[in-house]
Specification:
Number of helices: 8
Mean pLDDT: 90
Largest sheet: 9 strands, mixed
Number of domains: 2
Oligomer: single chain
CATH architecture of the largest domain: Alpha-Beta Complex
Distance between the termini: 54 Å
């Protein structure tokens, strides 16, 4: 079995961050979302993985490399335009070469990984094995009607959902699904939908099975989803201090201070991770906060936020529930920032008030 991770798409729901970067490279707990998907494929015993890329393909290639760091052999596949999951599957046909595939949306995270799902697929040999989860608003997802573990019907983002079972962004597919994808037409939104390809398989007599996900699932397409994922993954960390923390600083809860980081006169309230080479001075950080590499935090408070690499926060009274891009400056004035998304290379000066 091969892996196929989708790391293209325009990421419109995460703008302005995604104007200059791939949404799959947004870090949670200081690690790109995409890397967590690659880890889970490696844990499941998958070794050959295709990564489908789009306009930010060069950045993804640089970040992932040849896959050796994950124990994988990675091949990059260019999708000229984001025309749907089934289109990405067809684009990867040469790489797949008739093999089964576990297709993973690169901006999705699932608790517990995909190892048991891969083993079940290999043992039972259905046409496809899907991961589903009950959600409050299924109209935002592909939806499955399931009876006794077998999918009866699939529909993409229905206005009137026939069930509450949403398709999680993990699909185990036989080659029959790729063949079915050749015989579907674009949807009203102009995409080749994987739900249509799977429905074609069902109509042709194929067996499409569904497994209910008991743990958490996050589709990190929006800012609040990224912060949710950050909280969940930070909670799984084991504390360690590999950088320098002076005697005037106080650490509580689970705190990770990476090599080369320096913390002076500050309070870190875990779960928190401070990236390599970052400087934290006279600041309060956490809980539920990750700060990337080579950042500088001075005389500020940062809570429940993701701060990406090479950013500076100086003299800001408090920021919370924020997603701060790369090389961002949040400057003086003692203001308070709630729920902002600051795109890469931006400058914001906050003044008084709340």
């Amino acid at each position: 079995m091969k892996g196929l991770v989708l790391a293209g798409g325009s990421g419109t729901r995460l703008r302005p961050i995604t104007f200059s970067s791939a949404k799959q490279l947004v870090p949670v707990a200081n690690r790109p979302i995409l890397f967590h998907a690659l880890d889970q494929l490696a844990d499941a015993g998958v070794r050959q993985v295709g990564v489908v890329v789009g306009e930010h393909g060069d950045e993804v290639r640089t970040a992932v490399g040849d896959g050796e760091a994950f124990g994988l052999e990675v091949t990059f596949i260019r999708q000229p335009r984001p025309l749907g999951i089934a289109h990405a599957l067809l684009t990867a046909e040469e790489f797949l070469d008739g093999d089964d595939v576990v297709l993973f949306l690169g901006d999705n995270l699932v608790e517990g990984g995909v190892t048991s799902l891969v083993h079940r697929f290999a043992s039972e040999r259905p046409t496809a094995q899907l991961l589903v989860k009950d959600v409050d608003d299924p109209s935002a997802f592909g939806v499955a009607v399931v009876r006794d573990g077998v999918v009866q019907r699939l529909v993409e983002k229905p206005a009137e959902p026939p069930s509450s079972s949403a398709l999680v962004g993990v699909y185990l597919l036989s080659h029959d699904v790729l063949e079915a994808a050749r015989r579907i037409a674009p949807s009203l939104r102009g995409e080749l939908e994987i739900t249509d390809a799977l429905q074609r398989c069902i109509d042709d007599g194929g067996r499409v099975q569904a497994t209910e996900l008991s743990g958490w699932w996050l589709d990190t397409g929006k800012k609040d989803d990224v912060l949710d994922a950050n909280r969940l993954l930070l909670a799984e960390l084991t504390g360690r201090v590999d950088g320098v923390v002076d005697a005037a600083s106080r650490l509580t809860g689970t705190v990770v201070v990476e090599p080369g980081a320096r913390v002076r006169g500050s309070s870190l309230h875990g779960p928190v991770v401070i990236g390599a080479g970052t400087r934290v001075t006279d600041a309060v950080v956490g809980p539920d906060t990750s700060v990337g590499e080579r950042c500088e935090l001075v005389d500020c408070e940062v809570v429940d936020s993701v701060v990406m690499a090479d950013s500076r926060i100086d003299g800001v009274g408090r920021i919370e529930h924020c997603l701060v891009g790369r090389r961002v400056t949040l400057a003086a004035g003692g203001g308070v920032a709630h729920r902002i998304v600051a795109g890469d290379d931006s400058f914001l000066e906050l003044r008084g008030g709340s």
